Amino acid sequence: MAARHPIYDADSETIREQIRRFCAREIEPHAEAWEEEGIFPRELYAKAGAAGILGLGFPEEYGGAGGGITYYCLVREELARTGFAGVRVGLMGLGIALPPILKLGSEEMKRRIAPEVLSGEKISALAISEPEGGSDVANLRTTARREGDEYIVNGEKTFISSGVRADYMTVAVRTGGPGMAGISLLVVEGDRPGISRTNLKKSGWWTSDTGHIHFDDVRVPASNLLGEENGGFKGIMNNFNLERLGIAASLIGSSRCCYEEAVRYAHERRTFGKLLAEHQVVRHKLVDMATGIQAMEGMLDNLVWRVTGGETCIAEIAMLKSFCGATHERIASEAVQIFGGAGIIRGHKVERIFRESKILSIGGGSSEVMKDLASRHLGWSA
Amino acid sequence: MKVLVPVKRVIDYNVKIRVKPDGSGVETQNVKMSMNPFDEISIEEAVRMKEKGVAEEVIAVSMGPQQCQETLRTALAMGADRGIHVKTDDVLEPLAVAKMLKAIAEKEQPQMIIVGKQAIDDDCNQTGQMTAALLGWSQATFASVIELGEGTAKVTREIDGGLETVDIKLPAVVTSDLRLNEPRYASLPNIMKAKKKPIEEMDPASLGVDTTPRVKTLKVSEPPKRQGGVKVESVQELVSKLVNEAKVI
Ligand SMILES: Cc1cc2nc3c(=O)[nH]c(=O)nc-3n(C[C@H](O)[C@H](O)[C@H](O)COP(=O)(O)OP(=O)(O)OC[C@H]3O[C@@H](n4cnc5c(N)ncnc54)[C@H](O)[C@@H]3O)c2cc1C
Fold first, then answer.
1. How would you classify the pairing of strands B33-35 and A225-226?
2. Contact B188 A52 (CB under 8 A)
3. pLDDT (average), residues B127-151
4. Fewer CB near the last or first residue (10 Å), C or N of chain A?
5. CB contacts, 8 Å: A67 with chain B
6. Is A106's C-beta closer than 6 angstroms to any atom of ligand 1?
7. Are A45 and A92 a contacting pair, CB within 8 Å?
8. Per DSSP, what are the bridge partners of residue B59?
């Protein structure tokens, strides 16, 4: 890093260094095997917890490491830079599951749940999407009916990251009438009777489980409600905003990995008696990749700064998310192109990143839905 | 007891070293610097002694330019209690460092100095031994295990072809090897706490040490570039090349 930076300083660079050391020691040597076998070593949570990595961006009084949104983004960028998105997602589910608990939960719940999750002892997941409605959150159908001191939950959630392993699920449920005004957020413990969970097979992120979850008359104490009954929609939207900043940071990290791999390969591989990097066409590709990264970074730094200053930036974050999704897709694709046939063979990071590059143009709010959201917040929509 | 740990600011191990165009040394401008990895291991060992209750205070010392304070802050974030910065822009040879460590040890009276077995920039592997000799203390180099007794220590050393265990009397100088421990990660809360820990500044003159180098660097150059290899078709061809071209048999 240069001596001056809009959001990072000497402390953040020390932390970046620590995260890189952690990745080099605990993730890089093993992740290829985990990914191929589709396993996630549970002890990695505790290791990342002890290293102070899980807690970055969370308040110290609840077991976090402090640092706010800047550090929330920094840790995601560095984990993504390994090129193992499945490991990052498997490890960092708490990044979207915990904030609603800390923002809306009772003091008792925060003290009970947050330290266990931030130390890596317990796993948490956020469950919003349903078979009938991913993009259309306001239409969700999973119900929670109040009966005495309990809610009784019925319905299903799908595509839930760490949904199978999670000890705590932050679940969006319908407690009232139709539309966004009837939605609440409820914490559901993974071991409650009536829950059944299956891992979905998918084209990438094999280290991270992606759960389909059935709730069949699941009884949950009413005190597990986050915030007001029927007031959950706003909390979900605020949480999406944070998630999308983190996704942008992850896409930047992953793009950097592609770029660095491509630069390295272009300086090793010879064709027509020259290094790839000596062909002007390849040099231009590398510059285009670097330009995309520079643009994404500029947008993210600016928005982290604005959000830290108290702005909400709904349209800007939505545009950031869709821009980063598309830019990352292009960078991953060009990296594979530079690798040629080798980029199609398993074992190269760019092969996996390209194969997985659609996921974050869909998850966390699809690009189309992001642009739709932006169009409604730019001040000109009908 | 007190434990003293010198920490050196070196070019980061990930950086590709470049020789300055005028051959006067290696490029350090705009190059990432970090704590010598063996010194991280020394700090970790000292902090573990403190956590076990066998050491009361861990003091980190760094010698060199202003930026050495960043290296000291890392040591403090890992758990050292306070820092000493001997500020100088001069080139420091192992003997000068050892003399300054001796002066600091005489003032601070630590029972143990844990020194990295070498620094990854010049790979001298001399400072620990010289410090022990100047102080007239016991020494145990290349430690992979340190067990403290009553005024003694049992140190397992990594030597060619095996391990050697030595019993030494304290005070002593121990130099740390790679397998002594795995240094911890400095967490953000600890980095913040480290800002409040004191760093005392001094200079070589106040320690009564003349740091004038005794060795003159004539020229620094890149190692010769590796030539591309060739594949041979047969054993006959290999032997003929070894005889006629390489002239080694
Ligand atoms: C690997 C993975 C992990 C995930 N993890 C989680 C998780 O942890 N928690 C969670 O809650 N969810 C998770 N999701 C779900 C994710 O958020 C949804 O997939 C996403 O919101 C899209 O919803 P959908 O799949 O139902 O697609 P749909 O909503 O059915 O959309 C299908 C297509 O139609 C487009 N479309 C939809 N509406 C509009 C519109 N109004 N205008 C124009 N185009 C539109 C979409 O952009 C998309 O291209 C995950 C998904 C994946 C793939």
1. unpaired
2. yes
3. 97
4. C
5. 188
6. no
7. no
8. B4, B82
Q: How far is the CA of A170 from the centre of ligand 1 (A)?
A: 18
Task: Break chain B down into helix, strand, coil percent, rounded to 5.
Answer: 30, 25, 45
Pairwise CB contact (< 8 Å): A66 & B192: yes
Q: List the CATH number of the domain containing A17.
A: 1.10.540.10
Query: Among the atoms of ligand 1, which is closest to the Cα of residue A368?
Result: 47
ipTM of the complex: 0.89
Catalytic annotation, pick one of A130, A243, A334, A351: A243
Q: How many CB pairs under 8 A join A and B?
A: 40
Subunit contact A52:B192, Cβ cutoff 8 A: no
How many other C-beta atoms can be found within 10 angstroms of the C-beta atom of residue B163? 11
- Provide the b/e sequence for B85-118 (b: ≥16 CB within 10 Å): bbebeeebbbbbbbbbbbbbbeeeebbbbbbbbb
- Asked whether A126 lines ligand 1 (CB < 6 A), one says yes
Residue A90 lies in a domain: yes
Which two tokens mark B141? 């180099």
Q: Is residue B21 part of a domain?
A: yes
Q: Do residues A161 and A105 both lie within one domain?
A: no
Residue of A nearest to B75 (CA): A14
- Verify whether residue A351 is a known catalytic residue: no
Task: Determine, yes or no, domain membership for A173.
Answer: yes
Integer Cα distance of A23 and A30 in angstroms: 10
How far is residue A6 from each of residues A14, A32, A235, A298, measured CA to CA in Å?
A: 16, 35, 29, 9
Q: Which atom of ligand 1 is nearest to the CA of A127?
A: 11
Q: Which amino acid is at A77?
A: E
Kindly give the number of the ligand 1 atom that is closest to the alpha carbon of A133: 26
- Domain, as residue range, for B128: 2-218
**Among protein residues, the one whose CA lies closest to atom 4 of ligand 1:** A159
Number of structural domains, chain B?
Answer: 1
Any atom of ligand 1 within 6 Å of the Cβ of A67: no
pLDDT of chain A along its 382 residues, tens only? 556 899 999 899 999 999 999 999 999 999 999 999 999 999 999 999 999 999 999 999 999 999 999 999 999 999 999 999 999 999 999 999 999 999 999 999 999 999 999 999 999 999 999 999 899 999 999 999 999 999 999 999 999 999 999 999 999 999 999 999 999 999 999 999 999 999 999 999 999 999 999 999 999 999 999 999 999 999 999 999 999 999 999 999 999 999 999 999 999 999 999 999 999 999 999 999 999 999 999 999 999 999 999 999 999 999 999 999 999 999 999 999 999 999 999 999 999 999 999 999 999 999 999 999 999 999 887 6
Chain B residues within 8 A (CB-CB) of chain A? 34, 70, 73-74, 77, 182, 184-192
CB contact, 8 Å: A66 with chain B? yes
- Distance, in Å, from the CA atom of B36 to the CA atom of B13, rounded to the nearest integer, reads 8
Structure tokens, A351: 């092969």
> Domain ends where: A194, A214, A230?
A230
